[in-house]
Automatic annotation (TrEMBL):
Statement: the UniProt record of this protein carries the keyword Transmembrane: yes
Transmembrane spans: 21-47, 53-72, 84-105, 125-142, 234-253, 274-297, 317-342
Keyword flag Zinc: no
UniProt protein name: D-alanyl-D-alanine dipeptidase
Keywords: Membrane, Transmembrane, Transmembrane helix
Top-level taxon: Bacteria
Sections of the chain in a coiled coil: none
Length: 351
């Protein structure tokens, strides 16, 4: 175990997170107000802007966050019922999370294309993502402060001198099994992508045709260069995603390995794997589940599926199942693994 300095009191932690979330609400509300008055869309579906009137939803959400965080953080005066404030914080966290949806896709697009579909939309999603973090922190601090538990370890105690990080441990067997299933779900997707980059044919499309499709859709020079070298960029991201998933459920994911030289043997900060894990789970799980529902309805003939760049609807559905089916399984496994990692690495206080 590692001894670390005594954490701040629950009330002080609540005040810091609450006022930080209030400051974010003021900034986000101002952002939504300016864009609404200037007629600039901040919500997009793919690359298509949605009505500017939706900007007022961001302003309204920011106002609700401001009122709620002040009610949670103020140390004196009449307080609203604890359950009401806590439910409001959690609900607003989920609502703002909807506005942040797609942040992961923006990051991937920027890495490989040095641009995004809309800078205004990306700024909105980045701001909303920050709001989710601050609201979640405020909700946790409020829960700890009003229930008398320690904000660090979640236990009830009157005093503590240090808090300890537990020794690295693997996740429970069921969590590890779900992680292996989530990783294995990408095998069909990897086979499909590898077939294309090696010049083969899959779902009626050759590798050359897929490169031409990427060019037609405005892929960056970096993306096209990797394609020509026989390296699929999404396959690289899949490899990183699987590495992250397995690190969340195995002990080596809590300690820097030997090849990190200076850092080897030191504990991995909890936020380092949890940040991409939570962003990935919040994006890929709903995106993949919605895609599986869409593919299921399309396969059953309930809805009409566009064939897109493929020769037949059947080919389009096959690629959808391979891609979005993997996202669904991986996203759900990532969410479960992140929750397990958060619980297993949570510090404990000692007197």
């Amino acid at each position: 175990m590692t001894d670390i300095a005594h954490p701040s009191s629950p009330d002080r932690r609540l005040a810091w997170t609450g006022y930080a979330a209030f400051g974010w609400a003021v900034a986000y509300g101002g952002f939504g107000l300016v864009t609404a008055l200037t007629g600039t869309a901040i919500f997009y579906r793919a690359a298509h802007p949605l009505p500017v009137g939706l900007n007022w939803a961001a302003v309204t959400a920011a106002a609700l966050v401001a009122v709620t965080t002040l009610a949670a953080a103020r140390p004196r005066g009449p307080r609203l019922p604890r359950r009401v404030v806590l439910a409001a914080l959690i609900g607003l966290c989920a609502l703002v999370g909807v506005a942040a949806f797609g942040l992961l896709m923006d990051a991937i697009t920027f890495v490989f294309g040095q641009t995004v579909d809309s800078w205004t939309g990306a700024a909105n999603r980045a701001l909303a993502g920050l709001g989710v973090v601050l609201l979640a922190a405020t909700a946790l601090s409020y829960r700890s402060s009003t229930s008398g538990v320690c904000p660090r370890c979640g236990a009830v105690h009157t005093s503590s001198t240090v808090w300890n990080r537990p020794e690295p441990t693997p996740a429970p067997r069921r969590v590890r099994a779900s992680a292996y299933v989530g990783a294995a779900a990408f095998l069909p997707y990897a086979v499909m992508k590898t077939t294309w980059v090696l010049g083969g044919t899959f779902a009626g499309v050759t590798g050359e045709e897929m490169v031409a499709t990427h060019e037609r859709n405005g892929a960056s020079e970096l993306w096209l260069t990797l394609d020509r070298w026989g390296i699929d960029p999404t396959a690289l991201l899949v490899a990183l995603g699987v590495f992250l998933l397995l690190g969340l459920v195995r002990p080596w994911g809590q300690v820097f390995p030997r090849w990190t030289l200076v850092l080897r043997g030191r504990r991995v900060p909890r936020w380092l794997p949890l940040t991409p894990a939570l962003i990935g789970a919040a994006t890929l799980a709903p995106y993949g589940v919605a895609g599986v529902v869409y593919a299921t309805l399309g396969t059953a003939g309930v809805i009409t599926v566009s064939r897109g760049d493929f020769s037949t609807v059947g080919d389009a559905l096959l690629v959808t199942w391979f891609g979005l089916g993997a996202f669904a399984a991986y996203g759900l496994a990532l969410a479960l693994a992140a929750w397990s990692y958060w619980r297993r690495t949570r510090p404990t206080c000692v007197g």
